[in-house]
Amino acid sequence: MTSKQHRPYQYRFIREKDIPDLPDPIHLWVLDGAVPVRGLSALTLISSFDPWASKICSCPRKYSLSPYTGCSHSCLYCYITSYIPDPFNARPKKNLIRRLARELSRIDRSIPVMMASSSDPYTPPEERLQLTRSTIKLLLAHSARFLVVTKSDLITRDVDLLRRASAAASITVTTLDCDLASKLEPSAPEPARRLRAIRQLSDAGIPCSARIDPIIPGLNSEREQLQLLTRELSEAGVRQITASTYKARPDSYRRLVRAFPSNERLLRRLYWESGEGLAGSRYLNSSLRLQLIMTVKEAAEAYRVRFASCREGFTSYSTSASCDSSHLIPAPLGASGTVSGETPSQSTMIRL
User: Which of 55, 112, 198, 301 has the least CB density, counted as fewest CB within 10 Å?
Assistant: First the structure.
């Protein structure tokens, strides 16, 4: 094994008997032999969402929670490769359930939790490990309000929990072209499966939005493509569409031009020659960004769907109460923060 190769992560199945705030032993997976990342050990599991202190981020106040470190969807455009080691090898957060049970008792439950920003909560290992499902049970037990952001139809597995929670879902669909999606997002479910997931969630009464994110010039930016995608999303049942253009960083840019060499000249010109630097990334110039964003906005309005853009600086064009769709999260079942008629301990017992 060369120095560039990593040892595959090994998992062991254990029973955790003394987790605070949980009435019964539960099963969970823990990472065996993980090496802590220098400088990250002091961070809490639930943190305040702050996307690089960007001046053009219009997100409302919220918490960020990721059951996993890294994401195995391996999307070419993903930004986590600029700051997470071994980014496309998703692995569980150490002592996730124990830490989460402790931290949920301390958060301000009027502030929603977003799951997740740096790792898809339904990254491929979740099908076997079910850590996100365990996390949802805890969020439900603590009457936390939360938004699930994913590009996986595995979320439908947890409809039974989500429909009882103060929860909304946001599904990312970047294109309807299966061949393009398989290159851009090689380990993510195909677009048709995501559309079916939106329909199933919506039919179950779970508020759903969609993200067309990122829009990449020359790949998924054609007007007809965006209009058709917007129509399909609206017909699937989304209440809001949020659009965002690709923000180039050197690592993700290299992956894109390797996969799409015929687009290299265009992308170099638009991002590195005529683009602009913002929040550590290369942006398209504002006029081109606005043109792409307005294409989606006009289509959304035509299909009677609310619209917002993300990290673009175009908040005046939004027709939605929040850019991230967190306003779609239903109110808690009980005004006291627990399920009506139950004490916190009873609520925990019932919900788990």
Answer: 55
